[in-house]
Amino acid sequence: MRLPLLLLVGVLVALAGALAVCALPVQQAQALTTERFTAKSNQDGADGIMGATDTRITWQGQADEGESVSSVTITLPEGSVLPADGTTVTVLDGLKRLSVPNTVDADGTSVTATFDEPTPAGSMVMLEFNNAQFPAEGGTFAVQGSYTLADGSTAAIPDAGKTITVTGTTPSEQMASWLNDQPWVQAWNSNKFLHLFFDPAIVVTTVPAVFWGWLLALALVAISFPLAIPLGLCWSFLRMANNRFARAIGSIYINVVRGTPLFLQIYIAFFGLPLLGIQMDNFVLGVVVLVMNSSAYLAEIFRAGIQSINKGQFEAARSLGMNGAQTMIYVIIPQTFRRVIPTMTSEFILMYKDTSLLAAVGVMEIMMYSKTITAATGNVTPYIVAACFYLIVTIPLTKVINHMEVRLAGGRPKHRKANRLQEQPHHDIMATVGAVAAEGSEAAVAKTLRMSESFAHTHQVHAEDSLGKKMKDGRR
Description:
By secondary structure, the protein is an alpha+beta fold. It is built from 15 helices and twelve strands.
């Protein structure tokens, strides 16, 4: 009894298994396998693939034995370009290239290759897309598309885990790529000198990068120069102090800083302080070095300006009851600043140009960006772009200095009344004063005094101008 029962159970189990297998969906064998999906590097100076830039994309698919392919469609993401006229279709049987007539149709981001007759069974299909472009934003892309077999069945192309990583491109890089394709740019770059120093495509890609270095250089100067002014004034006071010890300190500092190159001072600060365990941000340390260096030069500028003030100014302030500090703050320093403004502006320009030395220690200013791009491209054009960024600041400031020097050399404008009195002959002025005084009234006397004071002031101004002209001629 047990044996028939066991046989019955076995039959039921086998029947249930057969029913389960029949209930499962039929899995079609994969007829085409992706063997290769690659793109050629299109990045200058590097092994990478950039979006929105022409490249060559290659796809290879291997058909199963006994399967023939009648058409293949390759699709790239939105924003890509797949031109029909740049597509090459190849059919291989092992290492043998087969001649299979085909038709290629393109629709923006997809290309379909249709064979007049299905490919031989088990052959390999290879599609090459020249002048193709991936999306500008970049990303990682796997192959997409479909294929049709000889029996009319269609299936999606498997990616087989093969992807292409694309680097995003900026508008300037896209502009550079467009420029490189222009005939006039190609003719321009055919000249070796123009290509090495003024390549239009490299100019377009360099300007945005160097712009950030330019902003950093401006930030360095904008912070350093205002801090150097009061420090320079303090060193100037020490340099002119009556106390020998204070005067020695000021003299030693000014002479040492002015007597050594800024480049050496930068190296001492950036490589010496870390050895002492002092760690600072490169930007902050750059500001400190520029402030310490510029303050020594400003100290001498201020000292020359203070000593150029007439000693009568000190005596006049003392006669009004001012002490030494009040005299310096309210009388001397305002006049000093007015006289040294052109020289201070020149020092500002020098500090702005000296920020380029910080590139040697890794501060990402104008020269550091230019140096990096030049090393990558092997072209000197980035340095020319850097020079233009320096000139954007230096040329206008130089014009301002020249204008200020002209104004200071000409002196302050005279009052119209003084000019009229100066133009009148001496005897005419005295005659006018005498006529008014002859009236005898108090008002007439007051008017006479005012005219006499005006005449005296005019005569004094004229004498000072003559003396200044003679001294200027003597110096020449």
